[in-house]
Every structure is written in structure tokens, then in C-alpha cells.
Amino acid sequence: MPRPAFAAAAFLGLALALSPTTTRSAELAPAPRGSSAALDALLLAEVKERSELMKNLQYMSDVIGPRLTGSKNLERANTWTAEKMKAYGLENVRLEPWEIPVGWVRGKATMRLVEPDNGRELAIASYGWTPGTGGKKTGKVVVLTARTKADLDAHRGKLKNATVLLSAPKEVKPITDLNYPAPAGPSAGQPKKDEPKLPDPKSGAEPKATDLRQSGLDAVTEFLKAEGAACVCTDAGKPHGLLVTTGGWPADRAAAEARLPRVFMAHEHYALLHRLATRPDATTKVEVEIENTFVPGPVTVYNTVGEVTGGEKPDEFVVVGAHLDSWELASGTTDNATGSCVVLEIARTVAALAKAGERPRRTIRFVLFTGEEQGLHGSKKYCERHKDELPRHSAALVHDTGTGKVHGLGLHGRTAVREVLEPQLGALAKVDGWKGLDMRGMGGTDHLSFHAAGVPGFACLQDIDEYRLTHHTQSDTFDKAKEPNLVQGAQVLGVAVVRIANLPELLPRK
């Protein structure tokens, strides 16, 4: 039913309760329930004027640092975010465990030209959950363009210790072009990832570089492994020497160790190596050494979960989330400490409102997922763990495209949701950068696990900003974060989440 009108005195009481000079404590006198518009205004002001977002982001980026799934750093981040949630006054804060079959630690990866011997060191980074070379390997550089098994047979006996290139260099956009390609069709979403054409980075599968592997992989990799190739090299596809990484775990440690070493190479060096290796009647050789370590599993990892319990329908839920894990060429700031700290900021604000008497109708559950980078695993595990509750989940909203402003929410064609939600978001018209709900969807992040389970799952559609350059690279550092944009994102997502929590009914699922 509609919420009662909010008298001026009540509005003033709640504003004072949230003022910086007021002590936020369990003894804070509750304020009368206000109108939705007044609550929107208080939430927007609280985030703008008292944000702790950048303080948290700097700690997560610089002190905790990169947070690879299964690592001690990620576990530290789980513990720290849980303590933050408790300090902000959230309820039912816990770490929800799940397991991965094998952990992985990145070691050094070096490559240098041996022939022609011009002293050139080549910049490389290992693909996740791939093995090392077992020492230094010196061999030819081979550009492999095999399309049939007969093509492979022509290389038999010629690939011992070879470094293999499976494609020509990528066409790399200039560093001044910060946009992604246009969507491929009317239902295509804004891509979260912009990587070389490798396996889906969420699947953990191997690359499909030739027609030999249309059904999965394997003739080429098995052939290279049997022939004793040192590694496979892929163009990082980024400008100005940027490297990338991605990848996921197989079923067990034995399968991981049976993989072929695989590296990304800085585009400029890959192009050089390809030019040298395709010279007629000339041999190109490199020395490569890769040292990676597998951690025996199973390895326990965690999702961090906390709640602001609903005042009227505590057994119905709205999830707001982001992924806490990152890759580890840098500090994982824009992918996705930014989203994680936006979620913490919304948690802080909603908890403060609840203490002041504006408890949401439904429970708002704040979730920092893990294992997103290897296949949305943490959010899938959440949906498995909370399977019986999913029919009582109104929506799941996720922030995960870096430091750009949030200009919309991707509804994945859910017209019935748009009809309900659009009238609720009028306060956002005054928020700089907000354009409105969008019928497109977006791939590559944790809302998809909920969407697949029937729960309306939406990702924030964001300005790309420098995400093409920071994403999965050694440039994903704290200095790339832009405070005004992140505050704007917390405002947008906060208003949307509270409005959904306060609707008379759950969002429609048709």
C-alpha cells in the first residue's frame, strides 16, 4: 500500500538523525516513516556528503591488493569486508563457503629473443591455471594455421620446445579510443569484457583457434603437448604494452598440470614476433621460462554476506552485489574493487537509514561474490545455497564495469519489470549521467546467475571510461578510480535497491 505522507517535522527529524554531528548508535531515536521521495532525497544526500567509498577503495586496492580466487589476499578481503559490514550495523553478517578444486599461484614468466639475437626481452603474462615450463626452454617460434588434421601432421616432429602463435596480430584500437564495439544486434548488451578471442574467460575452457576444435578443443592442444611444444602465445590485444590475463580451473590438479603452458604477450611484441617468424627462409627462436604453482585442493573460498532486515517482509529479499575477487597483474581496482566498495557504501547508507527509523520493507542482502572471474562461480553457488529462498527474491542488481558513471540498468527484455520500476526512479532524473532503464542486457557478470535461476537480475550499464585499458591489465590500479562517478553509481543503485525493497509486491518474473 502507499506509504504515508511525510510531514516537514518528520523529514527534519530524520535529516538530523543522519547529520554528521549526530552519533549513529543503537539508541538513535526512530524517526517517523517518510514518503518515498523524501527517503530518496536523504539517501542521495547521505551518499554525496558522507561517503566512505574512496577510503574503503584505497584500502582494498593498496593494502589488501589483488584478490585472486583461492588466494590468501581474497580471504583477507572477505574478512575485512565482513568486519566493515558489522561496523556499519548490518545484521546476519557471515562468510558463506564454497570450494574450488585446485588453487593457483602466478610465478615469473620471461621470454627473450635468441635468434635473431638483438637482446629483446618480450613482455608476457601467464593465462590463469596453466602450468610452468619446468625450466628454460629454447626453441623455434612457429605460426600454426592448421585447419585440418593433415595440416597438423605437416608439423609432426618439428615442435620440440617451440613457442606457438595461433593467429595473426590483433587490430588494436589507438589508446585514445576508449569505446567498446557497438552491440551486434537489437538484443545485444554492452559487453563487460574486451579481450582477445580466447575461450569464454568465464568458462575455464581452452581457446578455439582453428576449425579443428569447433566442438570444444583439443586436437591442436593435444598435438602440441604430445610434440613437446614449450608454450602457446596469444596477443594481449591492448595498446602501449598492456598485458591481460584470464582463465579458469579444470576439474582437478592432474588436469591442470596436464595443460599446455599458455601466455599473453604485449601486442607490440607479439606483432614483432609474428613478423620475424613469418619471414621466408629464416628461423626465429626464443627462450621462455614460466614458473607457476598449483595449490592442492579442494580450496575453500567465501562469499561475504550481510543484511539490513526488512521491517515488514523480512523473508523477502533484494540482493545488491559485486564481485570481490580480481586478477592479479595489478590491484584489481576497477575490476572489481570499485563495485565492491559501491556495495559497501550502499550498505552503510541503508543501515544508517534503518537506524533512523527508515527500515526497508523487505530485507536488502548485500553480497560480495567470489570466483566471478573464472565463471560466475560464487553467484552460482549463492543461487544453489539459497535455492529455497529464490522464489522470494525480488531482484539482484550488480555493479561491475569499473569507474564509469551508471547511466542505466539492463533489464534483459523484461518489459513487465520496466512498467513497475520506471515510475519509481523519478529522483534519478536529477542525478548527473543517469539516462534510464534499458531493455538490453549485459553479459559477463554475476547478475546472470540470478537471471538464469528466474530471479530478475540486472547489471549497471556504465560509461566505459578507461575500462578497455584497465580491465585485467597491470594498469588496474587505484589512481584510475574517479570518486564523483563512483558516488553517482552508489546513489543510483542505492535508490533503485531501496525502491525495489519497498514495492508492494515482488517484481514480476514474466
Short structural summary:
Helix content is about 30%, strand content about 20%.
Anisotropy-based shape: elongated
Specify the biggest β-sheet. Answer: 8 strands, mixed
Q: Structural class from helices and strands?
A: alpha/beta
Distance between the termini: 22 Å
Main sheet: strand order: 1-12-14-13-15-18-16-17
Quick one: how many beta strands? 18
Helix amount: 25-40%
- Radius of gyration, in angstroms, nearest whole number: 25 Å
| Average pLDDT over all residues | 88
Q: What share of residues are in beta strands?
A: 15-25%
Low-confidence stretches: 1-17, 19-33, 182-191, 193-210, 213-217
How many helices?
Answer: 14
Would you mind describing this structure in some detail?
The protein is an alpha/beta fold and 510 residues long. The chain contains 14 helices and 18 strands. The protein has an 8-stranded mixed beta sheet, with helices on both faces. Strand 6 (137-143), helix 5 and strand 7 (163-165) form a beta-alpha-beta unit. Helix 2 (36-50) packs across helix 9, helix 2 (36-50) runs antiparallel to helix 14 (483-501) and helix 9 crosses helix 14 (483-501). The two termini are 22 Å apart.
